[in-house]
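Intended use. Records like the one below are meant for learning the mapping from a protein sequence to its folded structure. Do not use them to infer anything beyond what is encoded.
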Amino acid sequence: MAVPDSVQFAARYIQTAAAEREERARMKQLVLEMHEAQKEEEMEWGHYGGPDAVLAHQFPVNVNRDRWVKYNHPKGAPDADVVFGTHSQKRCAN
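Structure written out for the chain above:
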């Protein structure tokens, strides 16, 4: 649609669109520069950095994983004789 440039709204819209294009181009250039710097650093130090960086990125090992045994509770009712003992002795009468 052809709108004359004399209209304020159209002029502001065109200015805003141009500013957005410039901002996108500036951000794109900034991201490309950061990416190039990152690639140069990786080439200089290797993919993961120095040998200390490799150790810093490793996760600690859970040493209790192999020793952990799931508790299996006994099934059924407990044996009363085992819990309380057998009462073969007669009670004393008072």
